[in-house]
Amino acid sequence: MPAEVANAAGTAKHSRRAALDTRWCGLTVHYGDPQIAIGVVFAVIALILAASFLVIGVQAGSEVSVERVHRVGYWLRKRWLAFLLVIGVFVVGVSLFDLPYATGTSAGRTMVKVTSGQFFWSLVPNRVPAGTRVRFDVTSIDVNHGFGLYDPHGHLIGSVQAMPGYHNELDLTLSEPGVYRIRCLELCGLNHATMENTFTVAPQ
């Protein structure tokens, strides 16, 4: 079965996501669990690197034997390599198995044809009933664009690249009624910031 991103079904879904909303320059920015986790990991790594540079700076003026430098250096290098391998395996695993890119046939899905260009989105159809299993077939007529679909609460629930000459597909189950917003996530020209459209999920 294709991997799916199930859209929020009422407030219970959003409480599970533990989303944190912050206002910045008059705009509401949403942070869900993945963004918070990634931010914490990067903060920890930054603190470790800062502490390492501090220790190196303090010890820079002291005499250290070549043997100790080699011993400590190889000890750190092996563990750093192991850490990078773990992160790489995790990222590849999430990319392959937990992202909503389409696989298999479109049986049982409503096909939505998405055509992009500077600076517009065209969706046919542009409206489906709540609970519909949708497959977005996304392409471009000029340059590369980034198709990003945001739910009625402003959370990004799926994205895929729009490329001229190619058709990329995105599978989503849209359970929550409301107006979904499409934004371009890839810099495509002077009016990139205005490249938006809407997609309606109607109550059943």
Give keywords.
alpha/beta, Immunoglobulin-like, 5-stranded mixed beta sheet, 3 helices, elongated
Write the layout of secondary structure elements.
Layout: E1 5-6, H1 11-17, E2 20-24, E3 27-31, H2 33-59, H3 66-97, E4 110-117, E5 120-124, E6 127-129, E7 132-140, E8 145-150, E9 156-162, E10 168-174, E11 178-184, E12 196-202
Parallel strand pairs: 1-10, 4-7, 6-12
Antiparallel strand pairs: 2-3, 4-5, 7-10, 8-9, 8-11, 11-12
Describe this structure as you would to a colleague.
With 204 residues, the chain is α/β, with parallel strands linked by helices. It contains three helices and twelve strands; from the N terminus they run βαββααβββββββββ. The longest helix is centred in the middle third of the chain and has 32 residues, at 66-97. It folds into two domains: 33-97; 110-202, Cupredoxins -  blue copper proteins (Immunoglobulin-like, Sandwich), CATH 2.60.40.420. Mean pLDDT is 80; it is low at 1-29. β8 and β9 (156-162) form a beta hairpin.
How would you summarize what this structure contains?
The chain is of the alpha/beta class. It is 32% helix and 35% strand. It has two domains: 65 residues; 93 residues, Cupredoxins -  blue copper proteins (Immunoglobulin-like, Sandwich), CATH 2.60.40.
